[in-house]
Amino acid sequence: MAAPAAAGTGRNAQGTHDIESGFTSKMSEGTKVCLSSAGICTFLIGCFLMIILLPLSFVTLDYTEYGLAQRRSSGKVYLDKGVYYGGRHFLGPDFVFRRFPADAQFVQLVQIDAVSADKLDTIIDVEFAYFLVRDEIIALKLELDQSYDQVISNTALAAIKNTAVTFNTADYFLNRTLIEASFYAAVTSSVRQYHAVVPYIFLSAVTIPSQVSGKQLATAIQLQNNAQQIYTSQAAVIRATTNQLVNQIENNATLLIQTASAQAAQVVQNAHTNATNTVQEARRSGLAYYYSTVNITLPKHKASLDYITTLQQAGQAALHIGYQTRFISTGGSAPVP
Questions:
Q1: Where are the transmembrane segments (predicted)?
Q2: Secondary structure of the chain in the HEC alphabet?
Q3: From the centroid of its chain, how far is CA 176?
Q4: Residue ranges per domain, the chain?
Q5: pTM confidence score
Q6: Which of 218, 221, 116, 108 is nearest to 174 (CA)?
Q7: Beta strand pairing status for 105-115 and 84-90?
Q8: Are 183 and 206 a contacting pair, CB within 8 Å?
Q9: CB under 8 Å to 319, separation ≥6 — which residues?
Q10: Phi then psi dihedrals of residue 264, to 5 deg
């Protein structure tokens, strides 16, 4: 009885072992199947997340913008990553850009109450544009962040008012180019500390209040009247001085003419006198030579010849020679024997 019992016990043990081995094999195959299914699911989930998160990791920045990397969840800005500009950038799904404009920003300052150098109120409108400096965006973020626009506008307004007091009201109408250049220099210098540059500035409308323009017009009219009176007085003085100069010149001219006439008459008289003396001297010399040549020595003969020569020169005597009777006729007088 004991042997069969032992044999039966051995069979039961072997059967149990077989059952356990089969169960273990089935369990191993199930585990492998489960693990394979879990890996596939994980892979699919990973692919699904990649499909979703990968596009979210690219952040687009417009070409008119600068950007600083900022974590979406915490809001922290990463300055060590530098300044980004236009394009698509791979940052990660939890990143966005803190954006700053890269194109021109326009500012209109209207109805500025500027006090001119002549202490008159002048209402002006000023327009200008500015660009943010790309290499200084990080410094701008640290100092002003997104409030830079208001700071730049207020700074430019203060610079314009401080410059406006150096010009008179009339300069805003007569010398706008100089005023614009002065505004440009002042605004450029003042906003540069806030990492901005100004390419141009334009002075548009200029308005003078009616009460100010009325006072200015009255002042201008009074100045013109004063100038007219001064010119009238100066003209009277100039006319009197001119008349005096004219009279003086005319008197001098008359004196010069009279002096010249007297000197000319004296010269003519002296010339006639000299000519007469020369002729008489030549006549005396000629007669002396004639007396010597024809041997006339008696004074009466010399006197007769001198008389006859004088009559001939005067055209009042005609001498007839070759007749038996010698005579001299003098203008129809009777013959002289």
A1: 33-56
A2: CHHHHHHHHHHHHHHHHHHHHHHHHHHHHHHHHHHHHHHHHHHHHHHHHHHHHHHHHEEEEEEEEEEEEEECCCCCEEHHHCCEEEEEEECCCCEEEEEEECCCEEEEEEEEEEECCCCCEEEEEEEEEEEECHHHHHHHHHHCHHHHHHHHHHHHHHHHHHHHCCCCCCHHHHCHHHHHHHHHHHHHHHHHHHCEEEEEEEEEEEECCHHHHHHHHHHHHHHHHHHHHHHHHHHHHHHHHHHHHHHHHHHHHHHHHHHHHHHHHHHHHHHHHHHHHHHHHHHHHHHHHHHHHHCCCCHHHHHHHHHHHHHHHHCCCEECCCCCCCCEECCCCCCCC
A3: 10
A4: 105-208, 232-295, 297-337
A5: 0.54
A6: 116
A7: unpaired
A8: no
A9: 308, 312, 328
A10: -65, -45
Instruction: Write out the CATH class of domain 105-208.
Output: alpha beta
How many Cα atoms occupy the beta-carbon half-sphere of 43 within 13 Å? 6
**Rounded mean pLDDT for each run of 10 residues along the chain, 337 residues in total:** 42 49 51 64 65 69 94 92 90 89 96 87 94 96 94 96 92 91 97 96 88 76 91 91 90 90 90 85 79 77 74 64 53 46
Whether 150 contacts 217, CB under 8 Å: no
Rounded to a whole number of angstroms, the distance between the first and last alpha carbons of the chain is 247
Angle between helices 210-294 and 299-314 (to 10 degrees): 140
Phi-psi region of 258 (alpha: psi -120 to 50; beta: other; left: phi over 0): alpha
Question: Contact, 113 vs 128, CB < 8 A?
Answer: no
Q: What residues form DSSP beta bridges with 6?
A: none
Q: Name the residue with tokens 């990660």.
A: 92
